[in-house]
């Protein structure tokens, strides 16, 4: 059974791809800098009008675009670059460096600008004599069309924590500085949290990839009534706009929202040579959780928890933190009981592709853990051994309801877990099966998945103009599902 590979046109944007992304970088403490993924909420057309990134950043953007785009790319840079350059013989380049305090409750911004010729070599960063450009706050004269520095800072302030200081080409800007000047370049010792926000629910260790050192992390839950949480989250949530395409600010007090908000935080623990006398915390990520009452939920009413925003800061991504946090949400849901109401379901609001994969992987692992301890939950061992038509029977409503209730997941997630389990069993059976039977069983699996997809997406199929178009669309959906399940099963080994 083969799978189709997605084209680069289906890919999500990546850090450093757009013109604005190549002009902006962040750093968290002593770790390496990282660039935003999304910039459209702050800068129109994903560019800073009249500004190009510095040479090294533009060179990296070329490499990123080459690996991201398909082979029929019409240019060497993302299309947003074409909207940056103004008419004229000179190119103005900018590097905007946002230094996040470890708590992410405040930041400092360094801006460096240069003026130079337009040429940029393809085989590496150009090495030409440049001069620093000094700008008045109005950035007047012939540069009226170019976004002024103050305008750039205004747009940056929409998506960063409170700005405590700004330096432009090494000179501190008094208009933006809200703290006393410091003699040293950057000192954030006082910017850690002395304790986590909320109640700690889990502690664990992870290796920091950049330094290969082992670090301690804690996950905490902050309640909607926690005033400290509301003030803190109002500052840190702005960062989501750079990494979540549709992110917006939320009022975590949520008095008129028809429910209430809790926030799950991930903090890195910092101590002094293993001493517990001075333990400090820095932000590594968070997930916002909206709770609302579902009085008509079957088989029983209760509270539904909706995951709304999930952000792991780039220095800590691809280290298993998202899985730890999602698992902690389910553990929190299993333990929750207020005024006689329990959490009956955890769902996700408009998940990005990466979170879809994370969620499906975690849900499948929880399902496998469940049947490992009690096979009566979902016992199809006889049908799996025979690999007969009963094995490929569609999941019935009662089984969906049972699985979703036990795991506190949606019925659609129960179906996905069911389909992944059937695929894993089919793959195991094929290792020792008669080769003449394999094609037939793969066809049975394909028909089972397509029947589920037909019921799920009937409106889209109804909009097709012909039966052939419906068949083509169903096959495309099946191939997407098969590739997705196969990848997750390989990762789970």
Please characterize this protein's 3D structure.
The chain has 493 residues and is of the alpha/beta class. The protein contains 12 helices and 14 strands. The protein has helices spanning 19-23, 55-68, 149-156, 227-236, 321-335, 353-373, 381-386, 397-407, 411-430, 435-456, 458-462, 467-491, and strands spanning 24-28, 52-53, 91-100, 107-116, 131-132, 163-168, 171-172, 199-208, 213-222, 260-272, 275-294, 302-312, 337-338, 341-348.
Cα radius of gyration in angstroms = 26 Å
Q: Shape, please?
A: globular
Percent helix = 25-40%
Note the main sheet. 7 strands, mixed
**Number of discrete helical segments:** 12
Name the average pLDDT.
Answer: 86
What is the end-to-end distance? 19 Å
Q: Layout of SSEs?
A:
Blueprint: H1 19-23, E1 24-28, E2 52-53, H2 55-68, E3 91-100, E4 107-116, E5 131-132, H3 149-156, E6 163-168, E7 171-172, E8 199-208, E9 213-222, H4 227-236, E10 260-272, E11 275-294, E12 302-312, H5 321-335, E13 337-338, E14 341-348, H6 353-373, H7 381-386, H8 397-407, H9 411-430, H10 435-456, H11 458-462, H12 467-491
Parallel strand pairs: 1-3, 2-3, 4-6, 12-14
Antiparallel strand pairs: 3-4, 4-5, 6-7, 8-9, 9-10, 10-11, 11-12, 13-14
Helix pairs in contact: 5-6, 6-9, 8-9, 9-10, 10-12
């Amino acid at each position: 059974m083969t799978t189709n590979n997605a084209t680069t046109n289906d890919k999500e944007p990546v850090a450093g791809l757009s013109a604005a992304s190549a002009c902006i970088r962040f750093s968290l403490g002593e770790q390496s800098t990282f660039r935003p993924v999304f910039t459209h909420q702050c800068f129109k057309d994903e560019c800073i009008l009249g500004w190009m990134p510095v040479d090294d950043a533009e060179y990296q953007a070329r490499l990123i675009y080459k690996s991201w785009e398909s082979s029929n790319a019409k240019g060497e840079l993302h299309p947003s670059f074409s909207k940056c350059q103004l008419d004229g013989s000179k190119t103005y380049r900018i590097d905007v460096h946002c230094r996040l305090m470890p708590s992410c409750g405040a930041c400092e911004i360094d801006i460096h600008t240069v003026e130079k010729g337009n040429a940029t070599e393809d085989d590496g960063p150009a090495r030409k004599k440049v001069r620093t450009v000094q700008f008045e706050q109005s950035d007047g004269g012939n540069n009226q069309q170019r976004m002024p520095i103050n305008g750039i800072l205004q747009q940056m302030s929409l998506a960063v924590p409170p700005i405590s200081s700004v330096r432009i080409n090494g000179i501190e800007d008094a208009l933006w500085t809200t703290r006393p000047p410091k003699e040293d370049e950057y000192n954030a010792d006082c910017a850690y949290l002395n304790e986590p926000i909320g109640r700690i629910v889990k502690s664990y260790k992870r290796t920091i990839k950049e330094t290969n050192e082992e670090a301690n992390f804690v996950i905490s839950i902050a309640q909607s009534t926690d005033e400290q949480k509301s003030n803190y989250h109002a500052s840190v949530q702005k960062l989501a706009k750079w990494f979540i395409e549709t992110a917006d600010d939320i009022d975590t007090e949520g008095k008129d929202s028809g429910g209430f908000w809790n926030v799950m935080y991930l903090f890195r623990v910092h101590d002094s040579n293993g001493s517990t006398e001075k333990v400090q915390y820095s932000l590594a990520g968070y997930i916002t959780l909206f709770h609302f009452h579902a009085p008509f939920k079957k088989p029983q009413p209760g509270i539904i928890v909706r995951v709304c925003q999930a952000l792991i800061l780039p220095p800590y991504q691809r280290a298993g933190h998202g899985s730890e946090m999602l698992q902690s949400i389910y553990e929190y849901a299993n333990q929750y009981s207020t005024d006689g109401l329990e959490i009956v379901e955890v769902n996700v609001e408009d998940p990005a592709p990466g979170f879809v994969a994370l969620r499906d992987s975690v849900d499948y692992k929880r399902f496998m853990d469940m049947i490992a301890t009690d096979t009566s939950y979902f016992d199809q061992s006889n049908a799996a051994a025979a690999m007969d038509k009963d094995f490929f029977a569609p999941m019935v409503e009662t089984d969906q309801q049972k699985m979703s209730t036990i795991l506190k997941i949606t019925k659609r997630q129960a179906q996905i877990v069911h389909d992944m389990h059937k695929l894993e069993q089919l793959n195991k059976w094929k290792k020792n099966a008669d080769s003449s039977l394999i094609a037939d069983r793969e066809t049975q699996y394909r028909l089972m998945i397509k029947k589920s997809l037909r019921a799920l997406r009937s409106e889209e199929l109804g909009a097709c103009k012909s039966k052939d178009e419906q068949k083509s669309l169903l096959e495309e959906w099946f191939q997407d599902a098969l590739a997705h399940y196969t990848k997750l099963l390989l990762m789970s080994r």
